[in-house]
Amino acid sequence: MRRLIFALLRSLSVVGLALGFAFFAASLTPSLMPRSFVVQGVLSGISAAVGYLVGVMLVWLWTYMELPRPRAGLPVYRAVVLVVGILVAIGFLWQAAGWQNSIRDLWHMEPVETADPFKLAGIAFLVFMVGVLIGRLFLFTWRWFSRRLARYVPQRVSNVIGGVIAIALFWSVVEGVLLRAGLHLADSSFQKVDALIEADVPQPTASGKTGSPASLVAWNGLGRQGRHFVDSGPRAADIEGFWNAEAKEPIRVYVGLNNAATIEERAKLALEEMKRQGAFDRSLLVIIAPTGTGWVDPAAMDTLEYLQHGDVASVALQYSYLTSWLSLLVEPEYGADSAKALFREVYGYWTKLPHDKRPKLYLHGLSLGSLNSQLSADLFDIVADPYQGALWSGPPFESEMWRNVTAGRDPGSPAWLPRFRDGSIIRFTDQTNALDLPGAVWGPIRMVYLQYASDAVTFFDPHSFYREPDWMKAPRGPDVSPSFRWFPVLTMLQLLVDMATATTSPMGHGHVYAPEHYIDAWIAVTAPDIAPDRIDALKRHFEKQAASGDND
Fold it and tell me: What is this structure's pTM?
């Protein structure tokens, strides 16, 4: 094994090695999320492999253009690159902990003493070698087909056809075997988890609850996230205890994937259950688009129910039991179709009610739910009788409406906290309440985007492959490291890893949204009549809950 490794190292491209070391070193610099040595090792190994691939492609292009190449001294050049590359890597590894702490300090996290450089480098080396071996296997496959085709067609034609066959073969293995097997495993696993009924979540007995014996929605069909949503949240007594005033029991309606066969049937079932519970007699009605698993952020709905003294009804429709990124990969239109069907049913009934007796209607969604919620209603269809507003948190980078609004922001506002036109319809906020815009007056519809500058789900940019994203330019967001630098190709890899780990951040950063920030957003959207000192008290109440681990 040792001989094989040394033989492989001796055969590596000198230019590829140089760029591989450069990519490895640059990958240690900070991005949006702090990284453990395991995550950093995998990222650095992939980065080194990508750098090596870029170097090999540059050498191929140089050779193809018949430019002069050195005929001797390659072992010396390789040795020099190895020595210099290792020294550079050691220097960057020495600074890795400080770079990670540049994020952790902003997030008020405990600093790390070390980046575990030996473990990190070991993981990176293994990942790099696996990448090189896969590349060698691809090259062998390409050449094998090319040599056989060269007997019948010109060499250059056989090279092209051989390359196409190799790409198709590798893609079919990845997409047709590995990806499908992985998705099937994930699908069955998430389905089993979704169907699991926890012992600490008993079926409600009150007739006014979704899933109760009197409900139109079967408890067993709600799914894990639906049962938790229905069972959790503040009770009327909790809200009364905080305000020292009368409060109502919040209404939460949820329909799971197994409660009806089709999207349309589930949407109609949700509407009938809303009617049964008296949802349209409340002051506020919120149509929620959940995340991929069907999860509804308790920080969003609990805060609203407190702000409105429980006089709130909310409804959500499950469209998947996969995590958001898998749901987006496997069934990208399904979540939007589900959100549209629910909105169509609720809005159609709501518009038939007398204007002075119906509740105010709002939309909400987090992450993939935010994207689907934005797609649920066409403004041209509702302009004659609009809903009152929307709160969308952590909108994914693929949200077309969010992208267009951000691109059309006032030139003086940063991309991570845009100001859109006169602020009468759409406003943005983050950890610091930025919704009270001087000179701005709300119009008939209030839409708020709650987003953190450190949220890679929102600020991942595929164009960072070749250009610096606007949100990286000064001034930067309050929780983005000043040491974050843009590198071609590499920054996109860093942001991909950040996006995959965004939900592991502490509350109030990354993709984990804090109750106190929801409070500011909901106040701007729904305009409740609350004294400033009581708002601060409510924020402290939820901060205390978060510190104790009680999120219900």
Answer: 0.91
